[in-house]
């Protein structure tokens, strides 16, 4: 389990943490867990998500188990810099839907001494890197890769298999549109 920064960090130093994985892997729950702990530590927290993510709620980050935390929906990454004034922690959910400018935004926030926590899908339904996630993982201080359980065989899943016929990279959805699969089960359904 991820534990907060240790004493070796510079007291004014910002950090970038990335939580990456497939759908249903617990990214949002882990993000909410870290934010609740930051609030216990009396840290000022701001949470952002892309406006395109209208799946459960317009103004909340919501997990598949319906845990939720208030958030600000933003059109693009530049708006995060404008809105993140005087905070200790900036959190960003569904980071895969943001533009590539999110990488610079996170660097700037960390340079300002802010703890930045980013959660998102590392791969799309084709198994290809998704949006700014690969670069964010490269520049992060800490990367946590989380996993779902494969609905095919019960082992650890890292792929989000799309169950409906649609080739667009962005297609909001839930259990009727996607299922988490391990590499073996994913390759099996792809080769059918
Ligand atoms: N196949 C699965 N593997 C793991 N968790 C699942 C699965 N299907 C449903 N869940 C539920 O999804 C929750 C994780 O939801 P969430 O944090 O929103 O994930 P993510 O943000 O990664 O999509 C789990 O705690 C579990 O209750
Ligand atoms: C794989 C994949 C997913 N999406 C969408 C589907 C959901 O609305 C979100 C992921 O949400 P989660 O919190 O990680 O469960 O992304 C997509 O648009 N394209 C894809 O390839
Ligand atoms: Zn499997």
From TrEMBL:
Q: Which residues bind Zn(2+)?
A: 150, 153, 182, 185
Residues annotated for ATP binding in this entry: 21-28, 93-96
Q: Does the keyword Ion transport apply?
A: no
| Keyword terms of this UniProt record | ATP-binding, Cytoplasm, DNA synthesis, Kinase, Metal-binding, Nucleotide-binding, Transferase, Zinc
Task: Name the source organism.
Answer: Sunxiuqinia dokdonensis
Q: Which family does it belong to?
A: Belongs to the thymidine kinase family.
- Where in the cell is the protein located? Cytoplasm
The active-site annotation reads 94 (proton acceptor)
Quote the InterPro entries the UniProt record gives.
Answer: P-loop_NTPase (IPR027417), Thymidine_kinase (IPR001267)
Reactions it catalyzes: thymidine + ATP = dTMP + ADP + H(+)
Q: Which residues bind substrate?
A: 170-173, 178
Instruction: Please report the name of this protein according to its UniProt entry.
Output: Thymidine kinase
A single Gene Ontology CC term: cytosol
Q: Name one GO biological process term.
A: thymidine metabolic process
Q: Which GO terms describe its molecular function?
A: ATP binding; thymidine kinase activity; zinc ion binding
Gene designation per UniProt = tdk
Pfam families given in the database record: TK
The superkingdom listed in its UniProt entry is: Bacteria
Query: Subunit comment for this entry?
Result: Homotetramer.
Q: What is its EC number?
A: 2.7.1.21
* Major localization listed first in the record, in broad terms: cytoplasm
């Amino acid at each position: 389990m991820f534990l907060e920064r240790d004493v070796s960090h510079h007291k004014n130093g910002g950090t970038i943490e990335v939580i990456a994985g497939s759908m249903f892997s617990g990214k949002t729950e882990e993000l909410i867990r870290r934010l609740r702990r930051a609030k216990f530590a009396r840290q000022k927290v701001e949470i952002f998500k892309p406006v395109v993510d209208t799946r459960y709620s317009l103004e909340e980050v919501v997990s598949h188990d319906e845990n939720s935390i208030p958030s600000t929906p933003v059109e693009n990454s530049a708006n995060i810099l404008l809105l993140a004034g005087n905070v200790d922690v900036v959190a960003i959910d569904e980071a895969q839907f943001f533009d590539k400018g999110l990488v610079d935004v996170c660097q700037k926030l960390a340079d300002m001494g802010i703890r930045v926590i980013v959660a998102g899908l590392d791969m799309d339904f084709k198994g290809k890197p998704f949006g700014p996630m690969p670069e964010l993982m490269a520049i992060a201080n800490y990367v946590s890769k989380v996993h779902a359980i494969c609905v095919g065989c019960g082992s650890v899943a890292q792929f989000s298999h799309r169950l409906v016929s649609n080739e667009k990279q962005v297609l909001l959805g839930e259990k009727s549109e996607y299922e988490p699969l391990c590499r073996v089960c994913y390759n099996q359904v792809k080769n059918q």
